[in-house]
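In pairs, describe these two lines:
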Amino acid sequence: MAGLAAFVEENEPRILGYTVHFTEDGTEMSVLHFHEDEDSLMFHLDVAGPKFPPIAPFIRMKSIEIFGDPSEELLARSRAKAELLGSGTVIVRGLHAGFARPTRG
C-alpha cells in the first residue's frame, strides 16, 4: 500500500489527499482519498486502476463510500472496483450541510 500511495502522489497531481490507515491489530485497512471534483476521482480510477488487480488477492473490501453526488458512470466504475476487490458494495452519502476550507500554506 505504501507503494500505491507513492504512485498516486507522483502521478495524480489533482488529488488533494490519499491516506492509508490500519487498525491497531493490522487486520483492517481504510483508504481515504480526497478529490476537488469528480473528474479527479475518474482520473484516479484511470491512472491507479491498473494497480488494483495485482493486490486483489490480498484484499477483502467491505465497501466504497462516496461522499457527494456521483454520476452514474462513477457509480458503475466504483461498483466494478468494489467487486474486483471484495463485496461490491458502494455507499453514497449525500451532502447535508457543512463546508471545506483549502489547506493553508
Q: What stands out?
A: The helical segments are 2-11, 38-48, 52-55, 72-85. The chain is about 35% helix and 20% strand. The chain has one domain: 2-93. The first helix runs from residue 2 to 11.
